[in-house]
């Protein structure tokens, strides 16, 4: 039997985590933190219901996958975003991590 208080806390953290990660990725603010948090969250989703042969779940699945499912693909896409600093060129990170121009002596 599940603890109702723990379920409410996990539900709250899941909802607001998804909102914060989504806002960070869409607006381009703190993209490195948002992508790493997204990878961790998707890893938790993947581990909780892995697409392996012979496992049955109480929730219906959307297809017949073998090891690779959409969660793993989304995690790989976020890994690409984490490896390349695209947020430093477009989005709110441009303003957050702005470097002041230094005067060079002639």
What does this structure look like?
With 106 residues, this protein is mainly α. It has one domain (4-96). It has 4 helices and no strands. The chain has helices at residues 4-27, 31-48, 70-83, 93-96. α1 crosses α2 and α2 (31-48) packs antiparallel against α3. The longest helix is centred in the N-terminal third of the chain and has 24 residues, at 4-27. The radius of gyration is 19 Å and the shape is flat.
Quick summary of this structure?
By secondary structure, the protein is mainly alpha-helical.
Class computed from helices, strands and strand pairing = mainly alpha
Q: How many β-strand stretches?
A: 0
Strand content: under 5%
The number of distinct helices, counting runs of at least 4 residues, comes to: 4
Average pLDDT, all residues? 84
Poorly predicted spans? none
Percent helix: 55-70%
H/E element order: HHHH
As a whole number of angstroms, the C-alpha radius of gyration is 19 Å
């Amino acid at each position: 039997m599940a603890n109702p208080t723990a379920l409410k806390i996990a539900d709250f953290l899941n909802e607001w985590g998804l909102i914060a990660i989504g806002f960070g990725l869409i607006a381009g603010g703190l993209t490195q933190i948002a992508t790493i948090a997204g990878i961790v969250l998707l890893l938790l989703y993947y581990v909780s219901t892995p697409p392996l042969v012979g496992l049955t779940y109480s929730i219906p699945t959307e297809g017949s996958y073998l090891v690779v499912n959409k969660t793993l693909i989304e995690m790989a896409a976020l890994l690409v975003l984490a490896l390349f600093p695209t947020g430093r060129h477009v989005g709110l990170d441009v303003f957050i991590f702005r470097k002041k121009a230094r005067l060079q002596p002639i």
